[in-house]
Amino acid sequence: MSLTSDRQRILVVDDDGAIRRMILRTLRNLNVELFEAQNGEEALDKMAKVSPHLILLDIKMPGMDGYQICRQIRANPANQLAKVILLSSLNRLPERLAGYQAGADLYLVKPFEEEELKALIRAFLKLRHAEEVEQLRTNLLQLVAHESRTPLNSILGYADLLVGGNFETSQLSQIAGEISRQGKRMLQQIEKADLYCRVTSDNYPLRPYQDNLAQVVGRLTKDPQFLGLPLILEIAPELELEFDWALMVQVLGFLLENAFSHNPEGQSVTLEARRQEGRLLIQVSDQGPGVLEENRQAIFKPFYTKSLMHHHAGQGLSLALSKRIVELHGGTLEVTGCPPQGAQFIISLPIIPTPFIDLESLGSSKLFGPSNT
């Protein structure tokens, strides 16, 4: 299982339509998402849009050949874990070496047996998943360490002040309040990391209950973080729905937090919700810098925060976590809005949710608002 989607994605690149169709037909029963491209330019465009886990790449194509495409794939840090299998009818050592030098993980000679291709793909997807888990663990530790350092230093600094001096009651109250604030900030980061680990595990169980969306949002906006902020609510009153609201309220909180952190001071954020064609649509709109089109997939990747407009301290996991929770409910989370028009984060959920598993032992997070448990 991918850490950001229920199914892994494979991109098949070949200028020969018959070969592409044969490969796609062979892979249909692997429970993966399949994409295709007929040339290098189209392949790189698909890479940016769908972030495939594995690429089957023909070498001899007009325009960019497979070696050139492979080098461009490897030049992008976002593709560091992607597996590339080069396909060629040439079985000479110089061609094979050139493929590995370009960054390919495997050089497969045509013609090949269909069962061999499927076995290789299964093996490489398992390897990719193992590497992804290890990368997640490393990044998670780095993120928690990085985002705990500032509040922890503040706590220690105030503790040293208390040890070394005499203070009036009002001063002690101020210091205690700051220690409490920084401690809660650090705890929130730890809870967010813990929640991300749990919802990205296999077969994560959801706990649904019925609630009214307008009331859920009303309770959320009473969180001290949002009190007094210019939030416009346009929510249909009849939205009485069954979801794991203890999780969905986290999504709404993260999206509002993200929106206000990038909004010009004093400008409003809008949260809209309505039914449309059998689905629930929720949109959070800000008036900030927006998100460049080439970053609209990457922004939902965990820890992908460098060089992105839409990033704020403490949000290295928020959007990835939001997307994962929405996907667990059978929905989608996307972003639109190019600079400088602001960003619109759009949740689309089925009104009749996908099946839930209700386990009594499941813990709940309290990053935002009261829990149902």
From TrEMBL:
Keywords: Phosphoprotein. It holds the Pfam family HATPase_c. The keyword Cell membrane does not apply. SMART domains: HATPase_c (SM00387), HisKA (SM00388), REC (SM00448). Residues 143-353 form the Histidine kinase domain. Its EC number is 2.7.13.3. It catalyses: ATP + protein L-histidine = ADP + protein N-phospho-L-histidine. One of its GO terms (molecular function) is phosphorelay sensor kinase activity. Residues 9-125 form the Response regulatory domain. The modification 4-aspartylphosphate is found at residue 58. This is histidine kinase.
